[in-house]
Amino acid sequence: MAKKKNNWRKNTVYKFLRVTLLAGIAVLLIAGLACTTVETVEVPVEKVVEKIVEKEVPVEKIVVQEKVVEVEKQVPVTIEKPIIRYVETAERDVYPDTMTIAVGALPVTLVGNTIPSLQSRLFSRLMYGQLAALNDATGQVEPEHLESMTLVDDTTVEIVLKKGIVFHNGETLDANGLKKSFDLLTNADPKKFTWKFTGFKDYTDTGTVVDDYTMRFTLLAPIDRWANAFTFMPLAPKHLEAVGLDGYIDDPVGTGPYKFVKWERDNHITLTRWDDSPAAKKPVIKNVVLRHVPEAAVRVAGLKAREFDLIAATPPENVPGLIKDGFNIFVGDSMQSMYIGFNVYGSNEYTSSKKVRQALLYAVDMDAMHKTIAGGYGSRLDCQIVAPGGFGYNADIEGTYTYNPEKAKKLLAEAGYPNGFTLVGSTTAGRYFRDRPLLDAVASQWTSIGIDVNMQHLESSEWLQLLINGTLPDGFMNIGLNWYLSDNTTSMWGAKSDEAFVEMRAEKSKMADPVAREAKVKEIAKYICDEAQALHAYTIPSVFAYSSKLPGITSTKSFELQIPTE
To answer: Is residue 492 classed as helix, strand or coil in its secondary structure?
Structure first.
């Protein structure tokens, strides 16, 4: 494998595939959006279909299943509909030593708690444990490295660490070390690739040590999401103090099942199983290599050529063919939504107009785009950031902006732009599932109502740095917006210019009663929709295609890679 390093970039066959497939896909999706259909794998709800395929040796069992999990209304999760096509080889007890994963974008920093992307959890949760973590099934933040986590009164929180938590470098986790890492991160001033750590912005400080394993914290005021601060990934305190934040980037240390080996920025990350881990069970794959491959067509070609063992963000149109070729498929939903925000800095001349924003929403046939560009994967959103089942989902605002290009043109005229205008914005390219094809199609439909769209296509790390600097084009931008630790009020709206919006969200955050809080969330969600703050597309799915030589690989709704254990 090492001898083939970077061969995929040079291979003329891959270059041909990249140019031909991307061009063909763009034409089909944008020009024929309304009538194009994509072959998908039809899976009956709550039914497991088993087919025995006779071969010489070994025997294979093909299992296709779709599971629907109902959730309580107050739980901030979507209804999960994973699709699994997994070929399980009989009597297999040995898997490849190394799994090479091709992803559209690699993390820009490797320090836990500072990696600004939910997708990067595919890497970070292999290397880092957490004090507490979101339970996909319950939607609640639950202890992981903590023995307990208690809201003692309205403004006091107490945490108790488990004993025996060990870092990759041999350090042990205790309250004094945890407090030190809280302070070092909070006081750090990163210059690139990440925002300043603000995990304790809702607390008076970074806590007080009570004893070797206990800490207490004081909230500035009662809030609903007090537990979010403790989804913290512990950092080795002595190592962090010795090398600083910049040094930790080059030599990260965590408590997860894999430890760091090597990182070449924008090329690859190599991890190896932590065989000295005190955990009773260890992953069956020894080494994991994440490769940076932004072009989806190249990822697919590399999988077929056995250059990669698993590819992320697999294009839906390739899924049927990959299944026929014997590859395994996993499709799962997430709690991250494709969000196209307007006037995010509160200063754009055109998208400051409510009628212009409404016109932009009426001009887009998102139902067709979800079926074609996303292949129907993920949950179609309807004027709100969460899908049905998410906390505060508001069914009353469904269908507010049904596709109506003539109404869009009328609204532009009423806003004073009968002849349109030039709208400047940006799109990510390969950072999220089907991001560029979606934004290209959206821009095409905006053009059809008379708007001249000037859109920058930005590589992942460049886009991220502009986002952190607050210097993206201010007309519109896309982002995978996370709500896995939030609710239906999540927004990138230029809130500084909207005092009513700021006040509503502040009032909501102080509500302890879940019934009253959900009612307030629904009210705010309606305000977001009425004001046409953004175009909400669909939840961003995990779509893996991988070799049948691997064990069953899945993902959580927060993009955490699940590798079976021994």
So the answer is: coil
